[in-house]
Amino acid sequence: MIRGAITSLQVSCVQMHWAKPLAFNVERTLYFVGKAAEAGSRVVLFPETSLTGYYFPQVLSQDPKDVQAALEKTREAAARHGIWVIAGTLRKTPRRYLNLAHVIAPDGAITHEYAKVHMAGADEKKYCRGGEKLSLFQIDGVWCSLVICRDGRHPELYRIPAMAGAQILFHPSCSSDEVEAVAWKRVSGRAQQPAGPSTRMFHCVANTVGQPPDGKQSSSGASFIREPNGLPLAEAGCYQEEMITAVLDLSRADRAYALDSLEQPRFLKKHWKAMIAEVRQRADIKPR
Asked: Which band of pLDDT confidence, cut at 50, 70 and 90, is reported for residue 186?
């Protein structure tokens, strides 16, 4: 157990296939939890919907009990290895699905859950609904935030948490698209642009790779861990499953740009403060 204020945090990001069956995803998740712990990481981040997968023809046939069992096995692995785990599921509710990120503590408890706000793609828009809060939580006393894939296109979702104290942005993603769009994303700098240059926080992305059974789409890969200045500490390839790891020097995440925006222009300050207060108030609400 880490006691007192910490000055650094080792993080691993896992890049996984996005369209495999639930049982396969669970096996790979348990494997990479062990590998991250073996590497000395305190936190391991998995991609968007890492347990259920993002391929809806498979997701729609999954038994919610099996999904819950997969999450329980992941919690047990976190406790067994004494590591923070951030994993994802698509959870069926009476009002469509929620795209969730689960923050699991080293004792196996789920300490925070965030539901994706902005849907992407025809299937997700058809079968899912957005969440009703921004993400703000602690890992070993360090304030953090989460966005999921398309959410990263909406900087207010992580900028306000940065104003509230978040030094690290965890960004699980499944950047899947037609092959032409995937190629464009790679050439232009991929779907996720670094958050650091506009906030001065660390940005950790775990993305997916591979094609679904019908071969109609692909994923862009290129997971990364970036400094608050936007420069890479670690980057993954475009095609293979892999894990990247970096040590975050927390003194560098001063959130300077987000805090500057809190001060100027002055007429916005009261509005920012009101939003920060509501983000904090809603942070522990469970998505339902």
From this structure: confident
Which residue, among 84, 189, 101, has the nearest Cα to 147 in the 3D structure?
101
Give residue-wise pLDDT tens across range 189-198.
Answer: 656 788 999 9
Residue 111 has φ and ψ, to the nearest 5°, of -100, -15
Burial environment of residue 254 by CB neighbours within 10 A (0 to 12, 13 to 18, 19 or more): middle
Helix (H, G, I), strand (E, B) or coil at 81: helix
pLDDT tens, residue by residue, 95-136: 999 999 999 999 999 999 999 999 998 999 999 999 999 999
**Could you give the residue ranges of the DSSP H alpha helices within the chain?**
22-38, 56-59, 64-81, 122-127, 156-163, 179-188, 196-199, 256-263, 269-282
Phi/psi for 76 (5° steps) reads: -65, -40
Helix (H, G, I), strand (E, B) or coil at 13: strand
Given phi > 0 = left and psi -120 to 50 = alpha, else beta, which region is 151? Answer: alpha
Dihedral sign, Cα of residue 29, residue 112, residue 134, residue 69:
positive
- Record: fold of 8-282: Nitrilase/N-carbamoyl-D-aminoacid amidohydrolase (3.60.110)
Distances 55 to 50, 81, 214, 280 between C-alpha atoms, Å: 11, 29, 10, 33
pLDDT digits (tens, 9 = 90+) for 162-183: 999 999 999 999 988 888 888 7
Is residue 99 within 8 A of residue 124, CB to CB? The reply is yes
DSSP 147: -
